[in-house]
Amino acid sequence: MQVPNEGHVAVLAFPFGTHAAPLLTLTRCLSSSAPNLRFSFLNSAKSNAKVFSKIKPDDYRNIKPCNVDNGIPEDHVFSGHPLEAVELFLRAMPRNFENELKEVVANTGTKITCLLTDSFFWFAADMAAEMGVPWVALWTASPCSVSVHMYTDVIRSTMKGIENGDQTLDFIPGMNTICAKDLPEGVIHGNLDAPFSQMLHKMGLAMPKATALAMNAFEEIDPTITKDLKSKLKMVLNVGPFDLASPPKSYSDDSGCIRWLDCHEPASVAYLSFGTILTPPPNELIALAQALEAQKVPFLWSLRDTSKLHLLEAFLQRTSTQGKVVPWTPQLQVLENSSVGVFITHAGWNSVSESIAGGVPMICRPFFADQMLNSRLVVDIWQIGASLEGGTFTKSGTMRALEIVFSSEKGKKMKENIGVLKAKAKMAVGENGSSTKNFKTLLKVVSGCEEI
Ligand code: UDP
Fold first, then answer.
1. Does the predicted TM-score (pTM) go above 0.90?
2. What ipTM was estimated for this complex?
């Protein structure tokens, strides 16, 4: 495919949770297919340092990290509220991005020819229109969750006054099995006026203005929702799963996780991780530890040192041969290791997607945001995992869930189902697969070769 010699893509990243990393992955895929395009990656200094430290300079020669103001006043004293840094950042945007964009254009002497942003940034619709360039939005989660935000007004008016959390969203294509209680906070429950809720609402309204919506998913995972999104948006491009489409060239494993896994029987190990932000409450951590010990399951647990309670110390000593607890794992490689039989997860989208790519059934303990939706998809729609009785970790409930996945007919079926989904994912990123075709279209849009 012919790509123009000139072009400057401004990439606008959301610097919290696991958002900037998948956007950088997509940027790297685009930049290696179009080495003559220039990419400026606008993100907070802290997040840029983190995501660029994980890749080698040779892998991002035409991508320049550019730091934007994080919105935290110099004399700011944090109150300890978990969303404080996020809300300060939201308050600083779009001004911080606009300022940095001016700098980038002045410093490089090249104007912006495309905006590629985290889809959270609704304001990019007007920014791109003013610049006369395409706006490509990346939704880093599932097609189902972006659909929820597109239908927020319909959900609010249809479900007004409905108290029953089990009420389904059967009035939206592809959501017959999704319940009111699965919705992220800020759609019908929680503080609808909170800055984060407002951002998601505005995003849903702005999405039809996007030249293209890209997603880290594949069409075959949710055909009904993908079809519906296509009927509403200008262009919908599932280009994932990223971990299969562009597997990392190298990884670090300072704690020797893979060596440890290699010493275990196939499908015998429980892998535990709750993503980059959260830690389950102390009582649940303890119940989980008790269940692993009682069930005598070998386990690999990604647990930050700050989350290790003194109550867990005795458990860690007693189980030092049964399990391995480390602050960080090379999760992609862990889930690809044949010894892993179950992933105990918070059901963050990246984790779910990586578990599908590895063919590992899950036990889901969702906490917030899109995690309840993802868990519903995993457990009830795709049937590739189990939930917990009562929704939280108790010793008996966790033991039961482990038994289901490891030793029941239902668990066997889950393993089969996830094998089928994995095969579809592999096909999607294969030579003539749907994600590969969509990526080629995306490349044309980003490099200015597509009519918009
Ligand atoms: N991750 C990892 N090693 C760990 C824990 C997490 O590599 O020990 C990565 C994991 O592979 C995934 C991301 O962190 O890509 C977590 O993303 P997810 O969307 O699941 O959760 P979030 O961090 O956004 O809550």
1. yes
2. 1.00
